[in-house]
Amino acid sequence: MQKKEHWDLTIKPHSKWYDLRLGEIFRYKDLLFLFVRRDFVSVYKQTILGPIWFFIQPIITTITFSVIFGNLAHISTDGLPPVLFYMCGITLWSYFSDTLSKTSDTFTTNSGIFGKVYFPRMIVPLSVVVSNLIKLVIQFVLFLTIWLYFFVKTNQVHPNGTIVLIPFLILLIGFMGLSFGIIISSLTTKYRDLKFLVTFGIQLMMYASPIVYPLSIVSEKYKWIILANPVTSIIETFKYAMLGVGEFNWMYLGYSIAFTTVLFFIGLIIFHKVEKSFMDTV
Amino acid sequence: MSNVVLKAENIAKQYRLGQLGTGTISHDLNRLVAKLRGKEDPYLKIGEANDRSQFGGSDYVWSLKDINFEVKQGEVLGIIGKNGAGKSTLLKILSQVTTPTTGQVKVKGRIAALLEVGTGFHPDLSGRENIFLNGAILGMTKVEIKSKLDEIVDFSGVAKYLDTPVKRYSSGMMVRLGFAVAAHLEPEILIVDEVLAVGDAEFQEKCLGKMKNVSGQGRTVLFVSHNMAAIKSLCKRTIVLKNGETYFDGNVVDGITKYLEALNPSINKGAIEKHHRTVNTGFVFIKSVSLENEEFANGNSIYFNNEIGISCQVEFLKDISNVLFDIRIMSADGIEILHSMNIYENNFVDVKKGMVNTNVILENRLQPGKYFITIGVHLSDGLTLDYLENILEINVLNVAKNNQKGLIYDFKLGYVRPHATWKIN
C-alpha cells in the first residue's frame, strides 16, 4: 500500500466548522504584540500631551455625567460622591465599548493588509482587546487614586471581599466586547447595514446598563430589561466590590458568564468562516 | 519519494460581476435553500470563460478554471499572462488571501507571499519599528527578525533614517525597506508578484540577484511578472494563463513566445478585428497590414538579410494634417528592437479623407527567429489615432536569399547582426 503523502497545508474551499486553526494564533503571538505596540505608539504620536489623553477622556466624561445626570437630572448615586460613582462605571464601560466598536470593523478597516498577506485574522481583534486592556489599566489607576482619596477622607466607600473577582470581571467584559465586535464585523463584510447601528446600539446599551444610575432605582416593572443586558451584572458586581453599593448576585453573574461563552464561540465560528473569503465581498 | 512541494488540483474561482447589493440577498437565499436540500450551489453551474471584451449573459464569471500544476522543490516557476488572465487571482489563492471556489492546493513547508512590498507599514512608526511589524505580518518571529536586522538594514540602504518615521521616507526608500524585509524571509516557497516593477535599475538588479540566490538555496519560487527579460533570466519553466485557463505550461522560451502569440491572435489577411485596436479615436482605421513578400506568397517568412516591406491600407474618415506613422518590431521574448517613423525620413504628411496606402521598407539586420510588428498612426502632438499592437508576426529564416556559400545562420546571439568589417592580419 502506498504511503499517504504528507502535506503541511491544504487550501480548499470549505473546511469543517470546528477547524478553527487556533494553534496558528499562538505561532503569530509576536505579531499580536507588535500590533498592540503600533496601536499604542501611533495614537499619541505628534500630540503634545501624549499619553495624558488617556486620563483626560474619563475625566471629561465624568464631569459631563456629574453635571447632567447628577446636578441637572438629580439621579441618585446610591449616596456616593457622584465623581466616584460615575467614574467607577465609566472605567469598565469604556473598556467594553472601545473594544466592541474597534473590533466591529476589523474586516473593513484592515482589508488593505488582509488582501495582501495571510496571517490568522483573529490576531487583529485580539490585539485590540490587549491594547484596550492597557488603556483600562491606566484609567483604573486614575480611578484608584480618586477612590483612595474618598476611602481615606470619608467613610462612604466600603470595599469588600468580592474585590478578588475584579480581574475576572475585566476578562469577562473584554471577551464580551470582542465577541460582539467580531460577530458584527463578520456580518458587515457583505451587507453593511449593521454598521450604522453600531454607534447607536452601543449608546443604547450604555443607558440599559447601571452606569449613570444605580440598579436600585429601577422599578420592578423594567428591571428585567436591565438585567437581560449581560453587561449589567458585571458593572454591578464591580461597583459592589469597589464601593460596597449595588447588587451582587451569583445568578446574574452566571447569566453573563454563560452569555459571553456562547457568544464568543458563535463569534469564533462566524469569524473563521468569513475570514477565508471576505476579500471577494468586502 | 517525489519532491513536489506544491500541487494545485483543479482550482477554479468564480466572481460575481457588477455591484453587490440588489439581487445579492435573493441569490444568497437560493444558495441556502439548495444547500439545505443537499444540492449543489445553483450559481456554480453558470458563468463563462473570462473574456472581458465580450458581454456575457451571466452575472457570474470564472476568473480561473481548471488550473492544475505541480511545482518541484527548488524550481523557479514564472507565471505570465496579460492583464485579467487570472494571475492575481491565482496568487491570492496560493497566498491564502482568498479561497478557491472549487479544487484545492496542497503545500509542503512554509509558504510566504509577496504581493506587495511594505504591507502594513505604519507611517508614524520609525523604520526600525516597521521592520519588526512588517516582518511579523509576513510570518517571522521577533527573534528571527532581530537576528537578521543588520542584514535587512544593510540591504535596504536606509541605515541613516532608521529612527525616522517612514512617512518622511521617499517612496523609493519605502519600497527598498519593504523589499529588504521580504528578501530575508526564509520560507520553503516564496511567491513574488511584480515587485521588481519598482525601484531604480540598480535596486531591481539587486532584487533579481537576491531571488536567484533564494532559488539557489533549494527554495521554490513562484514569480509573476510582465517583465519578460526578468522571467527569462530567472525561470526555467513558465505557465501562461489566458482567460483564466492554462494556455501553456513548459519551458520558458516557448512560454514567452506563446504568451506573445496569445496577445496577438494572428490576423487573417486584411481583416482586422475590433479587439486588435488598443487605442482608437474613431477618425482613422488601419484596415489591413501585410508583409510584402515575393518569395513566400502571403506567408510571414522572410529570408535572412532581406528587406522587410510592410504595407498597410489606412482609412481616414476626415482630412487630417500633420500625420505621423510609426512602426515597431518586437522580439519573441518581448523586447522592442526597432522603431521607425515617417518623420525620421521625411516630414509630416497631410492626408485627405479616404483610403491611403502606406508602405515602409526596413533594412533587415535581424537574427533568425520570430518577431512581432506594431503599427500606429498619430498626430504631430503625439495623440494616437489608431494603434495595432503586435498585429503581424514575421519569421526571419536562418538562410539568406542568395545563399551562395550555403551558410545556415543558426548560431544566434542577440537580436541584430550588424554589417561588420573584419580585418585579420
Detailed description of the structure:
The complex is a heterodimer of chains A (282) and B (425). Chain A is mainly alpha-helical and 282 residues long. Chain A has one domain (36-280). Chain A has 12 helices and 1 strand, in the order E-H-H-H-H-H-H-H-H-H-H-H-H. In chain A, helix 2 (29-43) crosses helix 7 (123-153) and helix 8 runs parallel beside helix 12 (250-275). Chain B is an alpha/beta fold and 425 residues long. Chain B has 2 domains: 70-261, 3-Layer(aba) Sandwich (Rossmann fold); 274-400, Distorted Sandwich (Coagulation Factor XIII, Chain A, domain 1), CATH 2.70.50.60. Chain B has helices at residues 24-36, 87-94, 127-137, 142-156, 171-183, 201-216, 228-234, 252-263, 342-345; strands at 4-16, 48-49, 60-72, 76-80, 102-107, 111-114, 189-193, 220-224, 237-242, 245-251, 277-280, 284-292, 301-304, 308-316, 320-331, 336-341, 349-351, 354-362, 369-379, 384-400. The chains are: A mainly alpha (282), B alpha/beta (425). The A-B interface holds A 5-14, 28, 30-31, 34-35, 37-38, 41-42, 45-46, 112-119, 190-191, 276-277, 279-281 and B 2, 7, 15, 20, 24-25, 92-111, 113, 115-116, 119-120, 122, 124-125, 129, 132-133, 136-142, 165.
Brief overview, please?
Chain A is built from 12 helices and 1 strand; from the N terminus they run E-H-H-H-H-H-H-H-H-H-H-H-H. With 282 residues, chain A is mostly helical. In chain B, strands 11, 13, 15, 16, 17, 19 and 20 form a 7-stranded mixed beta sheet that branches. A 6-stranded mixed beta sheet of chain B has the order 6-7-8-4-9-10, with helices on both faces. Chain B has a 4-stranded mixed beta sheet with strand order 2-3-1-5, covered by helices on one side.
